[in-house]
Write a structure and sequence with these properties.
The chain is mainly β. About 0% of the residues lie in helices and about 45% in strands. It has a domain of about 70 residues: Beta Barrel (OB fold (Dihydrolipoamide Acetyltransferase, E2P)). It contains no helices and 10 strands. A hairpin with a 2-residue loop joins strand 1 and strand 2.
């Protein structure tokens, strides 16, 4: 046994270290192979082809909780188009302007990526 004094962050510790003979090899811990966790599959919103007009896109990846408009519906600026859940928070996606919804590209329960088209407005 060897007695050693080790200082860590200004605190001194007295420790005893056992010496192993040269014939006994130190045990090496074996670790299990680590596989990378698989990323969730996020499909781009493509329920229907985007219509003409301004695209309303998802600001972040998440899951569509509800779609509050239908194709051909008239909306006012600020109306809620859809609700997107991201990180346990529900985010309302609002119409950027007044107009008519020319297509709805997302559906309830669908996972969307950042920038996925949710709907188009003209």
């Amino acid at each position: 046994m060897k007695n050693l004094r080790i200082t860590v962050n200004g605190t001194a510790y007295d420790v005893q270290v056992e010496e192993l003979s040269s014939s006994s090899a130190p045990a090496q811990p074996q670790s299990a192979p680590v596989s990378a966790p698989s990323a969730p599959q996020i499909a781009p919103a493509a329920a229907s082809a985007p219509g003409s007009g301004e695209q309303i896109k998802a600001p972040m990846p998440g899951t569509i909780v509800s779609v509050n408009v239908t194709e051909g519906q008239s909306v006012s600026e600020g109306d809620v188009i859809a609700v997107l859940e991201a990180m346990k928070m529900e985010n309302e996606i609002m119409a950027p302007k007044s107009g008519k919804i020319t297509s709805v590209c997302a559906s309830k329960g669908e996972s969307v990526a950042t920038g996925a088209v949710i709907a188009t407005i003209q």
